[in-house]
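Protocol step 4 of 6: structure prediction from sequence.
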Amino acid sequence: IADGALSLVGATDCHIYLRDPASGRFTFGTARWEEGRQAPAVIQPREDGFTALVAREGHTLVIHEALDHPLFADHAAPHWRVHAIAGVPLKHGARVVGVLSVAFLEPHTFTEDELRVLDLLADEAGIAVQNARLVQGLEAQVAARTAEIAAEKETSEALLRSVGDAITMTAPEMRIRYVNPAFTALTGYTREELVGQ
């Protein structure tokens, strides 16, 4: 998506920052520069900066003369020589889950077509971010449940090992799946000899 924004709009750079809707904190997503560099201009956007403003406002913001704009007049922005910048919120429903921004280091006026392209790309990115978060959440739930099952299995096996009575468990086809130490002591067979019989 960042590569598409960079090439379709012809910008100098494209950045995507992800935003936690609950805390409002940003994390770096990706960066693309026209010369191929992928390092971000900043790792963490300022709370009073352009990216945070786009997220708070929840709609596309365009600055055509950034060198004279209050958001870019101080801090390190003059060092970057940003002339024009557009920021588009990445949304899932009404929630802002990130911000896509493209900048020009030379004078530029964004056209309606360029802004439409950025809106479309931001829509796609918002869906991708939400899908990735859903998958991440499901993976966390699966991992937690797997750990619970493993702990329950270990507890059950510990109980079965400690019981003084001989115990065997069979599968529905009546093949032995488990024997406890008391069963092997009683029969004289090893566990390996019994399982599967």
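Step 5 (inspection) to follow. The mean pLDDT is 87.
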